[in-house]
Write a structure and sequence with these properties.
- About 45% of the residues lie in helices and about 10% in strands.
- It has 12 helices and 11 strands.
- A hairpin with a 2-residue loop joins strand 10 and strand 11.
- It starts with 11 loop residues before the first helix and ends with a helix.
């Protein structure tokens, strides 16, 4: 029984925030453009993967959602529902002209590419953007239940373009074309085939146990693999053996518990397997208030620096030349 004063958290919310920030930091250091690259979330149907995909869609214009191969029909259905949610998020919540929102606006603002019937479809979708500008936050829940993915995919294909969100369950099929990858699954074992990874790619592995094996590091020196979900405390605190990290660095899931305690919070976080954007903004605010920041990048449990990343870039450039 949970008493009123007891707070429960999964720790997933802060894990999402720090993992996405780590991936974006790694991409910037590898000189990968978020506007032109192709990114993916492996494990997109999970609690962490879902929100990571939504956050990445605010920055990236081309994203792939990848789920489990088991029970393919159900998982494809769920991936399609998530893609629909991301499109709605781009319209009603994300107000900057970037990522998936930018792709949608660029398509809908071009009236000339649609025939009469599809012109009406385009008009209906464009009106959603106008509705979003005037809608009260309290009234958005109903709008977020709309199914718009069929119309969006139809319009992109009619215009001669692939939809900006793709989805599937075959990792090996997508892997060779991916520049940026976030792995967040509950699977035990190594999921990425080293020989299929694109040269110069950045992979952020959030999974515990890790889904990216050391064989990737050994066989692919031209690929940057980093750990997700690591936090830097404002002071060099350590808890026992500190899970192998140096003082001042710890897992985001544990750090979320510390943040809620410091704040004397009365909010449960991430219960029920669905993290809300409000939860994310709340934890983000607490982290800023208490001085918890993204830890330096780590790869296979070791801290890495710009010199290490320069070697990975050099190896990737060598692959391109050859």
């Amino acid at each position: 029984m949970i008493l009123d004063h007891e707070i429960v958290t999964t720790g997933n919310t802060f894990t999402v925030i720090t993992s996405v920030n780590a991936l974006l930091t790694g991409a910037a250091k590898m000189d990968i453009s978020l506007e032109t690259c192709r990114g993916a979330v492996i494990g997109a149907n999970g609690s962490i993967g879902r929100l990571c995909a939504i956050l990445l869609s605010q920055k990236m214009e081309n994203i792939v959602l990848i789920g489990r191969k088991s029970n393919e029909r159900v998982n494809m259905e769920r991936l399609r529902e998530l893609a629909n949610e991301i499109y709605l998020h781009a319209i009603f919540y994300h107000k900057e002209r970037s990522g998936i929102r930018k792709q949608l606006l660029s398509l809908l603002e071009n009236e000339l590419v649609f025939s009469d019937g599809l012109y009406q479809t385009r008009e209906r979708l464009y009106e959603l953007f106008q509705t979003a500008e005037s809608a009260e936050t309290d009234n958005l829940e109903e709008q977020m239940s709309e199914n718009i993915i069929d119309d969006i995919e139809l319009l992109f294909r009619q215009a001669g373009h692939k939809p900006p969100i793709d989805y599937g369950v075959d990792i090996d099929y997508f892997l060779p074309e991916l520049d940026v990858i976030l792995v967040a699954t509950s699977s035990i074992g190594e999921l990425l085939q080293p020989d299929l990874i694109k040269s110069g790619a950045v992979i952020c592995d959030v999974s515990r146990p890790a889904n990216v094996g050391k064989i990737v590091q050994e066989k692919r020196p031209d690929v940057l693999v980093i750990e997700g979900g690591l936090v830097k405390f404002p002071e060099n605190l350590a808890f026992g053996q500190n899970l192998g990290y140096k003082p001042g660095v710890n897992l985001a899931c544990l750090s979320e518990t510390i943040l809620l305690t410091l704040e004397n919070s009365n909010r449960n976080m991430g219960i029920g397997g669905r993290i809300t954007m409000d939860d994310m903004y709340y934890i983000q605010g607490l982290a800023e208030k208490h001085g918890f920041t993204l830890a330096s990048l780590h790869s296979f449990e070791k801290e890495i620096d710009d010199e290490y990343i320069a070697r990975v870039k050099a190896a990737a450039n060598k692959q391109v030349v050859s």
